[in-house]
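Handover notes (outgoing to incoming on-call)

Open items:
1. Pyrroline-5-carboxylate reductase: sequence verified, structure written out, both below. Nothing else pending on this one.
2. Nothing else urgent.
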Amino acid sequence: MTDHIFEHLRVGFIGAGSITEAMIAGLTRGRVIPSCNISVVNRSNCARLQELADRYQLTRHSHDEQAILESDVIVLAIKPKVASQVLQVWGPKFRENQLILSVIAGVSTNQIEAACPQKVAVVRTMPNTSAAVGRSATAICKGQHVKEYNFATAKTILESIGIVLEVQESQMDAVTGLAGSGPAYFYYMVEAMQKAGVYVGLESDIARQFIIQTCIGAAEMLIHTGKEPSRLREEVTSEGGTTFAGLKALKKFYFEEAICEAILKATERSQELGKPTSHLSSRC
Ligand SMILES: NC(=O)C1=CN([C@@H]2O[C@H](COP(=O)(O)OP(=O)(O)OC[C@H]3O[C@@H](n4cnc5c(N)ncnc54)[C@H](O)[C@@H]3O)[C@@H](O)[C@H]2O)C=CC1
Ligand SMILES: O=C(O)[C@@H]1CCC=N1
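Pyrroline-5-carboxylate reductase structure tokens:
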């Protein structure tokens, strides 16, 4: 068995939700960080911490604040609405030699730095839940105190759960709307296709298998042929044929506009979440 990429690096997660689990699954599966060097805390749910500890063989004292503070990398994985409150508590305890990796939607590196009296290295990132299977599309950008080696560490950690692209911090909300939320759009599409498959006469599980393989095939075609999606679409579409009829229906129901609006609204919501006043909003 090969060694881990980071045999001694300790990683602490603040927040024990969906994205934390996806990242831990990816990190442990990819043999990046030994399970025994990962710790997690959340607000109050001990059962959830135990569940993660059991599932990923985490042996550090998960409920222990000290385990987080001793970590080399601290991942901020809480909801934007509690970010300022959590940072008020933890920010003063972070040390200059720690790397703070934030996955919080909308919250800027400046906002995080402002809550930390020490000049901590803050890397802001936006992964997605496909991290669990090593397929995240992750954006990354750096705060003002990030040194080259901090950034390299952050990138190596994140590359183990998918691809990593550096963007301007001003583009982070756009990536959040597009790729952070992106898996949900595809799942929604699959849900709709599965219902439609049943409607046209297939068993649900058979429809599901066809849909999943169709998704994988289409993604692989995009990767391996290098062709534009429009060209690949045209290759499926015979004039007057079945695809032509299907696409005509999608156009009639404003498919392109719906997708565009979804990404725009998600991007705007990410921008909103970064504003302190939004945390009073009941929609958070
Ligand atoms: N779920 C996703 O697909 C993605 C989420 N994100 C971001 O990651 C962050 C977390 O999202 P999820 O994991 O989906 O949320 P979640 O709701 O599943 O988990 C949030 C966790 O934070 C914990 N928490 C709340 N207050 C706390 C406190 N005071 N101290 C410690 N822990 C506390 C909760 O107990 C819970 O375990 C959000 O900012 C979100 O924008 C980023 C990329 C993708
Ligand atoms: O829905 C959310 O707010 C988070 C950010 C990206 C994906 N999920």
